[in-house]
Amino acid sequence: AFPSSTPYLHLETPRFRTVMTQTEVTATYVVHSTYDAKVSWLLDGKDPTSRTPVNQASSTTQSISSNLTLPSSQWKTLNTITCRAEHRCFNPTQKTSNVEG
After folding, report:
1. I want to staple 25 with a disulfide (CB 3.0 to 4.6 A). Which of 14, 15, 48, 79 is the partner?
2. Which residues 6+ apart lie within 8 Å of 79 measured at CB?
């Protein structure tokens, strides 16, 4: 039997100063899980991957880091950002954060 370990999701958003002074910003979700989960992003409830590159790397067997880079102008218009982790060994888990300025 598989352990029923629901992953823990942690969002690191760019600082206000970075958003105001840089042309691009990066948000990072760290997924702590014993499984190699698939990570997906939603920006204001919509899938951004068709036009926004998402990088995912397993840094250890215990965590996955997923970076989403956006133009600062787009970040400033966002209301919410959601990360979702999926794997066949646990129920899909997601975390939504309010990022509106």
Report:
1. 14
2. 44, 98, 99, 100
Tell me the pTM: 0.75
Structure tokens at 77: 């218009």
Task: State the DSSP string of 15-82.
Answer: PHHHHHH-SEEEEEEEEE-SS--EEEEEETTB--TTTS-EEEEEEETTEEEEEEEEEHHHHTT-SEEE
The mean pLDDT of 75-89, rounded to a whole number, is 89
Residue with tokens 């956006």: 70
Name the one residue in this structure whose structure tokens are 């999701």: 9
Residue 17: HSE in the Cβ half-sphere, 13 Å Cα cutoff: 0
pLDDT confidence of residue 21: 94
